[in-house]
Write the structure tokens for this entry.
Amino acid sequence: MVTDVMSGTFLSVQSRGTIAIPPEVRRRFGLDRPGAQVELVEREDGVIELRPHVPMPVIVLDAVDQAFVADLLLNPPEPNENLRRASERHRRAITRA
Amino acid sequence: MGYRIERFDGEHHDRTGFRSGEPTLDTYFARQARQDVRRDLNSLFCLREDNDQRVIGFYTLCASSVPLKDIPADMARGLPSYADIPAFLLGRLAVDVDHRRMGHGEVLLFDALARSAGSPLAAWCVVVDALDTAVAGWYGRYGFRALPHQPLRMILPVKTIRTLTPVR
């Protein structure tokens, strides 16, 4: 389940190809900040994606996700075997400058 | 054969032949990455062989924050009393298709995690936004946990990473 997602909103394409992203979406993704950009991706299935690129990405979480993160940070798990292997492989492979 | 992971240097690193097979990552690396670095929007790190400037993998890292303003009071004990806590965002990670299945992805991943955990900038966790469920599964194998309501957004506490990296 994904919350706070806007869908089914139609945006008019103006004569020069410009569209206006609704203010609430701009605010939520930090696109109202100086330097913000969107990346346009044309997918093979005919969908056009707009991906936000902002100076400092804004992470928006609802209360359930915040509680999940809080619990994870208060009870950090031990590294699993794959992460330990990655650590060892990194140590062996990478030449120190 | 040894490898190096370095900050991207547009004068020396050769990215012309890089192709991960994921169009959004390839387009970003070819057209946007250098501009983001120049504008201080992202740090970009590249993997190459010791004596070869061709890039065979990369990742991006930047500072971010995670909101924790809506958690129950009893859960807030032990956490900073701020509305947001600092985090690192591992935005993109890619390996060239000709260098797949050699473990480079997990080397890049661990480098990003170690760099985050060892940074002079404080952070509580590393966040990734997986492109799709297959990528999310890959991160999950290394201990990243998916958020209940945003399953492609995943978190790994810095304390988990620190047990494998030198204390800063």
